[in-house]
């Protein structure tokens, strides 16, 4: 059994942005030399998420409209008394999830036909990180 | 350390349906010969989920009513411009979660007294798949 | 490769309570002797959750207000026909998530600067349990 750890860095141009990272995660899995096991992809900041869903711009728009409806920005959140203005980002990332575990089989990500991995930024325009840890058999 | 991979197939009679899969996952764990470790149970399609909660029909009904309230079908979703009509299924599966990791201890799923594993279908009536990957010590 | 399993017990003074458990999980990781791998932290009861977010009382208050809005208590849930009165607790724990997988690197939890692990109790005042399973290299 072996493990392999890497990190992806993000600094998005806009405050909220969803970035497809399937290829970057695949590349780390290849580099790991692990052919059967699992890879954890987990946001290391608490205002961003990682999720698996469709690579379709319309749906990404729908997700963002929906998140704003369920977890609106601009409310009088108590968290904002600390000087922060991003309480909604904490809630939105909770709805999307902040990590996924992807199976690795026969040397590659074992994903369904439409599964794509995304990084979901809700408070961007600064450097943030995702940990990618692979564990399994060479 | 060893790994073992299997798949569960579903083709539900109705569009939305929750199916208990605790026994199927347990059977795969037994077949794997792994007695201590973890098993990942993850939907491979992006309009279905996997979750752990109560095996009680009333609560399953409550979940479905609640999901329809938070992520309604029939809205003018942008995803539907692609010809799809299932944007709500993508949102609902996000709320329920699409995967769980179950601990295996002393040769069996290490679950609490009421924990049951469910497959949550939100766009069924066609063949869909769940990956079950076991990793641990024999 | 080795594994190590432990359990955390809770009996909260109030029905709903969020408890920081980062230090308890770290202590189990140290005790495990595993220096590179992953640790699963998962609620074994279906009315409580485990999540990663900010250790800030204002935000915890915001989470609780928000959960009550999205998954209100006191509605006429069908689950209550069984004699239970906690359907909202099942929904709230679904929103927060019931488990996290934390990476272990160089002998410690590999967390971002603000990541803290919490136990989220939604139906407390009785004994409940969280499983902590570590897997990886010594």
Quick tags:
elongated; homotrimer; alpha+beta; 138 residues
Helix content estimate of chain A: 25-40%
**Mean pLDDT figure of chain A:** 98
What string gives the helices and strands of chain A in order? Answer: EEHEEHHEEEE
Subunit arrangement of the protein: homotrimer
The major beta sheet of chain A can be summarized as:
5 strands, antiparallel
Unreliable stretches of chain A (pLDDT < 50, length at least 5) are none
Shape, per Cα inertia axes of chain A: elongated
Largest interface: A-B, 34 and 31 residues
Write the layout of secondary structure elements.
The structure is a homotrimer of 138-residue chains.
Chain A: E1 2-10, E2 17-20, H1 22-32, E3 36-43, E4 48-53, H2 57-70, H3 87-96, E5 99-105, E6 108-109, E7 116-121, E8 128-137
Antiparallel strand pairs in A: 1-8, 2-7, 3-5, 3-8, 4-7, 5-6
Care to give the gist of this entry?
Three copies of one chain form a homotrimer. Chain A is of the alpha+beta class.
């Amino acid at each position: 059994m072996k493990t392999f750890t890497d990190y992806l860095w993000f600094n998005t141009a806009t405050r909220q942005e969803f970035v497809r990272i399937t290829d970057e995660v695949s590349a780390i899995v290849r580099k790991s030399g692990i052919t059967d096991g699992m890879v954890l992809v987990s946001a290391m900041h608490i205002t961003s998420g990682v999720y698996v869903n469709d690579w379709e711009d319309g749906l990404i728009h729908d997700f963002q409209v929906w998140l704003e409806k369920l977890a609106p920005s601009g409310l009088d959140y108590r968290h904002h008394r600390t000087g922060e203005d991003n309480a909604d980002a904490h809630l939105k990332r909770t709805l999307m999830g902040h990590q996924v575990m992807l199976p690795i089989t026969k040397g590659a990500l074992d994903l369904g036909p439409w599964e794509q991995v995304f990084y979901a930024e809700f408070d961007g325009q600064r450097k943030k990180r995702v940990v990618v840890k692979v564990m399994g058999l060479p």
